[in-house]
Amino acid sequence: MPLSSSQKKDIIKEFQTVKGDTGSPEVQVALLTYRVEKLTEHLKAHAHDNHSRRGLLSMIAKRRRLINFLEKVDKARASEIAKKVGLKK
Hints:
This protein is 75% helix and 0% strand.
């Protein structure tokens, strides 16, 4: 289920670093986290949906790569975004 434009705008507004920011790692991690949460709910109801499970795993891997990139650039930003979206690290 794709994000509606209003949901996407709300997430971007909450996590943007400067006004008009739509592509920073923080925004990308937040959008991926929202999609992962929704897809996880879907997979709880449809346990045998292996195609969606593969997409979920790729989204989780992409989110992990973005956070690793942020850790190399600025550890404080990485830990802040991880705490904000509810990740353990």
